Amino acid sequence: MYIRQSTEDKDISPSAYLAPGEAWMIIAVTGTPGVGKTTVSKLLSEKLGYEYVSVKDFAFERGIGEMVGEELEIDVDELAEAMSREFHGRDVVIDGHLSHFVPADVVIVLRANPKLVVGRLMERGYSREKLAENVEAELVDVILVEALEENENVLEIDTTGKTPGEVVEEISELLERGIKRRFGIVDWSGVYDEVLPYLRLGSGRM
Ligand SMILES: Nc1ncnc2c1ncn2[C@@H]1O[C@H](COP(=O)(O)OP(=O)(O)O)[C@@H](O)[C@H]1O
After folding, report:
1. Which of 24, 97, 156, 166 satisfies CB 3.0 to 4.6 Å to 183 for a cystine?
2. Going by CA atoms, what residue is nearest to atom 16 of ligand 1?
3. Residues of the chain with pLDDT under 70
4. In this structure, is residue 156 part of a structural domain?
């Protein structure tokens, strides 16, 4: 199991997100599929008056990546380059589980109890394998760890038991307070047994 680092909660002024002279802000919203990225990103962009951009649509429209079966496999370097170029000088909320690979002023990592992720992905008709892959990823903090490797400014938000509006309020408040880095706020080890039947090791295929 992933060994959690201690929570950091640093108070820094809001302007610390932006380099001197920059008046725009790029916010990346990432997380495991099903945690609520699209719902929260759209609401957040409305509240802030920012543009909303979906990584998937952006990549598809510009021919970044290639179709593998029914899925678009996105080249993250190409994505990061194209987004940096296009979003220079614009206020944007980027929605997608690859958004943390794009240069952003802050990365919001949404988290949700893996039990919720199971329910939402089953509803979407995910295959057993894709379901397992994603529930495991949420359980052991895969996206959070990647985001921390990619960006200094990472805010982890637990959406469990909250409405999308409450999540957006929490994000706005952290941004207003100028909090640049906060993580280590969830621990899913307690629900491991309950989601075990949905994991790859639970199906004897490890
Ligand atoms: N606090 C919350 N934040 C975001 N989504 C939530 C929340 N509570 C329930 N939901 C629901 O969870 C689902 C998340 O779907 P979606 O936003 O498409 O996730 P993702 O983009 O991460 O795959 C939606 O049906 C949404 O209404």
Report:
1. 156
2. 36
3. 1-16, 18-22, 201-206
4. yes
Please state the residue numbers annotated as binding site for ATP: 34, 36-39, 124, 162
Give the CATH number, domain containing residue 171: 3.40.50.300
Query: In the chain, how many domains are there?
Result: 1
Produce one character per residue of 107-136: b if its CB has 16 or more CB atoms within 10 Å, e if not. bbbbbbbbbbbbebbeeeebeeeebbbbbb
**Is there an atom of ligand 1 within 6 Å of 42 CB?**
no
Domain presence at residue 7: no
Q: Is the dihedral of CA 118, 123, 124, 125 positive or negative?
A: positive
Q: Is residue 5 part of a domain?
A: no
Per-residue tokens: 123? 């509803």
How do residues 197-206 score in pLDDT, each as one tens digit? 999 865 555 4
Residue 56, domain extent: 23-203
Distance, in Å, from the CA atom of 155 to the CA atom of 10, rounded to the nearest integer, reads 11
Looking at residue 93, its amino acid is: V
ipTM of this predicted structure? 0.98
